[in-house]
């Protein structure tokens, strides 16, 4: 697929189906390709934890209990939604105690994930980056197995494409100010 077309037509997919299964071998090869994202100092500050379709119900139950304490209705809603996803990554970045390096790491994560989302789109699948509030909870970090020197940058849900979603044009009227 042509790069310009892929950039314009990739969309975040927010509707999921129980029957969605992922070609994981293919998906993991796309992760390897996505690491060709620019990253200063070649620190490659990323790590992904993958939860496959079979594991999602157990994972979702644990996450729901930690995220929505004493709120069974919200827990159920969350579980019902995410069990429809084909597979999901938790996106982790290496924390650096130096301000500049930490900023560079965070920005490299953005480049890496955009690469991955474009590659997933190019292979005929869909994705959505999700940053729910609960990703900062120590209980969530424990469920995932996040290391002390890592930050959580959200989830990447991997799904089927949603054909009903159209290209969303950007405003970008005054993006560049001439000096
Ligand atoms: C860092 C980041 C975090 C996001 N978090 C969420 C989220 O928590 N929930 C959600 O529905 N979409 C989330 N999105 C998806 C955006 O809402 C989506 O990209 C936006 O609607 C533009 O649509 P498009 O990706 O289809 O072009 C996130 C996107 C980014 C880049």
TrEMBL record:
For this protein, the record's SUPFAM superfamilies field holds: FMN-dependent nitroreductase-like
What organism does this protein naturally occur in? Mammaliicoccus fleurettii
Give the superkingdom in one word.
Answer: Bacteria
Q: Which residues are in the Nitroreductase domain?
A: 8-158
Q: Which family does it belong to?
A: Belongs to the nitroreductase family.
Q: Which Gene3D superfamilies match?
A: NADH Oxidase
Alphabetically ordered keywords of this record? Flavoprotein, FMN, NAD, NADP, Oxidoreductase
Q: What is this protein called?
A: Nitroreductase
């Amino acid at each position: 697929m042509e790069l310009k077309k892929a950039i314009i037509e990739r969309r975040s997919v927010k509707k999921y189906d129980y029957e969605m299964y992922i070609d994981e071998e293919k998906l993991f090869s796309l992760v390897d390709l996505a690491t060709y994202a620019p990253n200063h100092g070649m620190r490659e500050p990323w790590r992904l934890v993958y939860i496959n379709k079979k594991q999602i119900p157990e994972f979702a139950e644990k996450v729901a209990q930690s995220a929505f304490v004493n709120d069974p209705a919200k827990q159920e809603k969350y579980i019902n939604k995410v069990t429809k996803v084909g597979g999901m990554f938790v996106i982790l970045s290496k924390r650096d105690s130096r301000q500049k390096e930490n900023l560079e790491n965070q920005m490299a994560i953005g480049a890496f994930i955009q690469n991955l989302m474009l590659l997933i789109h190019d292979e005929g699948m869909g994705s959505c980056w999700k940053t729910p509030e609960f990703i900062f909870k120590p209980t969530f970090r424990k469920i995932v197995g996040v290391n002390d020197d890592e930050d959580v940058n959200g989830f990447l849900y991997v799904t089927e494409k949603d054909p009903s979603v159209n290209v969303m044009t950007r405003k970008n009227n005054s993006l560049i100010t001439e000096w």
